[in-house]
């Protein structure tokens, strides 16, 4: 049971550190301070913290740092943790995908048990755009062309007649002894052959090993894929993972030079601290705090720990989204934002309906 | 306001007898921290709201109790409606900003498809 309501700030707020309390998470030696958002109306005298859409739009920026076909890293600045976390949770659990749900096993003489095989088949990511399909109505056993994808896996292992007599390599001795996800063939139903003529529907990766067979064993399986969300079963999650971290901030309280600067540089991740030559001495400067992993190693050195202030910027989120390949990561992010909008709309409609009664 | 018969309830309002319209507990079905925490943040940003909090009554049931207490006799559905609208507007703005950024990146890589 968790109740979240208004909380007072735990640090004494005087003029000099009010901005710090409002916008930074402080990383101390024994704990982390100022974690919660406190800028609600009434908490800080002299500040107007009422929601102002104009101010939000002025302060909000996004920046896509890195993008390739499966992984994306982007920054969101000026938004609160509650909403950033909502996007992360939706990316993990509420963006729909297609995955194998029903497995009809006509013949399985391999040593992999039926249920284990069905479980493995369900976890294989299926490359089909879930936006073009609908959810299957519960209670309907037979799927139709708008909500089901049918796949077939039919593999029989046999002895290789051309293998040499004294070889012991299974690659040479047997034919079809490894069943890969590339052996799953799409069987279009209804008008799917026309609608998806150029999109080849099937598993995202061809080289996922499903089972191993020996001569005489065979698999004859038909699979039905349906649309679902990660909340229901993790196989429907469209991301390998989606996570965010806050931007670290390292402030040097006084100039650090010489041997101390060398030790300071080793306390942080590579590339964070750079040693500059000034008047013949090496002086430490913070070059790129974004690369730091915030291990707080510097706080373990007694002579360095009071010279540095470690913190995180509370409204700067560095998101990393890695897709399983079903949808490109930028599409996943847009779909996640739309899911949150749909949730709000659902309750707004419900409020309107109850008001009209 | 609660669902009757076959229809599953989506939103219920629970109010103590004798209390004014400003103190209401809303029961949001099929929701969890995803909407609960973000909506709580948007409602707390409203200066008319004296108290706003949510709790998950039991982890096995997917519903949240969302309580709003207003000052000045304002009915509690107003900050709720404003919070939902503001959250929806925030999402729309984030979506627009992201799509603009993505298009700029793609133009920089000399190909652009604006997906809507």
Automatic annotation (TrEMBL), chain A:
One of its GO terms (biological process) is DNA-templated transcription. Its main location: cytoplasm. SUPFAM superfamilies: Insert subdomain of RNA polymerase alpha subunit (SSF56553), RBP11-like subunits of RNA polymerase (SSF55257). InterPro entries: DNA-dir_RNA_pol_30-40kDasu_CS (IPR001514), DNA-dir_RNA_pol_insert (IPR011262), DNA-dir_RNA_pol_RpoA/D/Rpb3 (IPR011263), RBP11-like (IPR036603), RNAP_Rpo3/Rpb3/RPAC1 (IPR022842), RNAPI/III_AC40 (IPR033901), RNApol_insert_sf (IPR036643), Rpo3/RPB3_RNA_Pol_subunit (IPR050518). Residues 71-350 form the DNA-directed RNA polymerase RpoA/D/Rpb3-type domain. Belongs to the archaeal Rpo3/eukaryotic RPB3 RNA polymerase subunit family. DNA-dependent RNA polymerase catalyzes the transcription of DNA into RNA using the four ribonucleoside triphosphates as substrates. Common component of RNA polymerases I and III which synthesize ribosomal RNA precursors and short non-coding RNAs including 5S rRNA, snRNAs, tRNAs and miRNAs, respectively. POLR1C/RPAC1 is part of the polymerase core and may function as a clamp element that moves to open and close the cleft. This is DNA-directed RNA polymerases I and III subunit RPAC1.
Automatic annotation (TrEMBL), chain B:
PANTHER family: DNA-DIRECTED RNA POLYMERASE I,II,III (PTHR13946), DNA-DIRECTED RNA POLYMERASES I AND III SUBUNIT RPAC2 (PTHR13946:SF28). Belongs to the archaeal Rpo11/eukaryotic RPB11/RPC19 RNA polymerase subunit family. GO terms for cellular component: RNA polymerase I complex; RNA polymerase III complex. Keywords: DNA-directed RNA polymerase, Nucleus, Transcription. It holds the Pfam family RNA_pol_L_2. One of its GO terms (biological process) is ribosome biogenesis. One of its GO terms (molecular function) is protein dimerization activity. Its main location: nucleus. It comes from the Eukaryota. Residues 23-96 form the DNA-directed RNA polymerase RBP11-like dimerisation domain. This is DNA-directed RNA polymerases I and III subunit RPAC2. It comes from Myripristis murdjan. It is found in: Nucleus.
